[in-house]
Amino acid sequence: MARTSRNLGLALAAGLVFVGITGCGSDSSGGGEGGSGTGGATGGTGGATGGTGGATGGTGGATGGTGGATGGTGGATGGTGGATGGTGGATGGTGGATGGTGGTINDDDCAHAIDYLAEADQNTGLYTGEINPFDESDYIKVDLAQLGISDGDFVILSAEVVMPGDDDPDSYPYKDVLDPTLTVFDETGNTQIASMDDAYPRYNVNTQLVWRVPTAATYCIRVADWATWALESRPETPTGAYWQYQFGVGTPADADGTNKDTEPNGDATAAQTMTLYESADANGNPVYIAWDYGMMNTQDDVDVYKVTVPDGIVALSLEDTSTPTGPGSTGQSGNGSTLTLGEVGISDLQGNFIAKLDATRGSNGINVPIVAGDYLMWIHRATGTTAGANDFYNFTNFLAATDNQGEAAGNDTAANAETLNGTDNNGTISYFMMGTIDSSTDVDWWKFPVQANDNISVACGAARSGSGLVGATFTAYSNETTQVQTETETEDADVYWTDAATPLASMPGLTVAADGVYYFKVSATGQKPDVSSNFYRCGIHVTAQ
């Protein structure tokens, strides 16, 4: 839904806590890395079991690096090398008393995966690595039981690009930035369990994978660039400028905003009270967020949550971050859930729905205008589906004090079309609108300026976003009377006009022939009898060519 609504500019990491690893496993802070083992100016200090040699032992300087009298042998607790460093030479320096000769770091499969417990920062719980821009992946071994994770716990795996000053990677040219993906395998790497590109909802190229752990064991995690993950080529040759990443294992924060499914909560009378995390958008406007983690325990299980919308909130979005389900395949996300979601909705306390959708038809979120008050959120398993081995879900709820530009009264003719207010985003002017269609004869008109050769992409949603509108129709005009393109929404596919190479496109984007003003008309054929809202949302994006 990011294409039809403004980006709130929120840091989704607020809802997780990275697992601390101090004290887990053995202390590796003084030992050799087992890499190429370059000799230092005064020799390396041996580790707890003696420094491990490199691929050919410790490599000396340009002339082999003359060492001390004995070449710096590691002691029982890691002895210090000789006066001027360990002796280089053909086979390199000798490791400590129990240390052996190391090899080159090989993290290119699960059999040689990086040990997360040993290599991650002991304070932050983050492992820092770097991907070669050309067809390389890193494999990381994570023992979840050693991290205190239990069977049935939720974890949040993350891979984020290291950027200067914590800059948003989406603000840099794509060719310069790693686009990390995450794939979870069993310890051997033979069975793929989950795979994810980005996050749901997406906030930039960084990836978050929310997963319910069926068994707290050792798993192998692959970090790869999107092109490697999807077996595709990037649009431009990557430069490798910002291809360092940080990988972490987090758990849902035990604080306001984290809501873990607690049975019984199967109807309106037993609804579980939802707590909210208070935050702000990029402009300082209040935003409330909730993360809902649940499990469909039986075939007929229904989960109901009660949410109190604070004063001043005008929009509520409900994003299913557990969709798509399953382990994913090449170039396809899947978070490992075996659940097929069915009806999802928002109602008043009496069960009258203001927004509702059938998740089996491909939509993964509701985005409804709302006023302060108490509401119920309903989650159902798809009708006719049987219980699976790991039927979990994860929803993210946003309650915002701002919304898309709303329609003005009287915009029911082209002559009275409402002028859209645009936002410049690196050369693309984006217009976001929200309106209501009150009857089958109601029509809304909007307009925006264009220049010759501009490319226009359009994304619109009504029923696909939970609205009760039926047959919402979106039509573009190159002037007040000349129709360019039109499409009627169905519940099975998004209205998405774009020239981008994506299977989500429903129609091609538009190319402007001459400077002027484009018009956009919205209408509908009817209203669902069991859903009261009648809203639509659109995002129109104009890019100069």
Commentary on this structure:
Strand 24 and strand 25 form a beta hairpin. The longest helix has 5 residues, at 226-230. This protein is mostly beta strands and 545 residues long. It contains two helices and 35 strands.
| Biggest β-sheet strands, sense, barrel | 7 strands, mixed
Mean pLDDT: 84
- Strand content bin: 35-45%
Cα gyration radius (Å): 28 Å
Task: Please report the total strand number as a whole number.
Answer: 35
List keywords for this structure.
single chain; 545 residues; mainly beta; 35 strands; 2% helix; globular
In short:
It contains 2 helices and 35 strands. By secondary structure, it is mostly beta strands. A hairpin with a 5-residue loop joins strand 29 and strand 30 (483-488).
List the topology elements:
Elements: E1 16-18, E2 114-115, H1 116-119, E3 126-130, E4 137-143, E5 154-161, E6 180-186, E7 192-197, E8 207-212, E9 218-225, H2 226-230, E10 244-252, E11 258-260, E12 272-273, E13 277-280, E14 286-295, E15 302-309, E16 315-320, E17 341-347, E18 353-358, E19 365-369, E20 373-381, E21 392-400, E22 405-406, E23 418-419, E24 422-425, E25 428-436, E26 444-450, E27 455-461, E28 469-470, E29 473-477, E30 483-488, E31 495-497, E32 510-511, E33 516-523, E34 526-527, E35 535-543
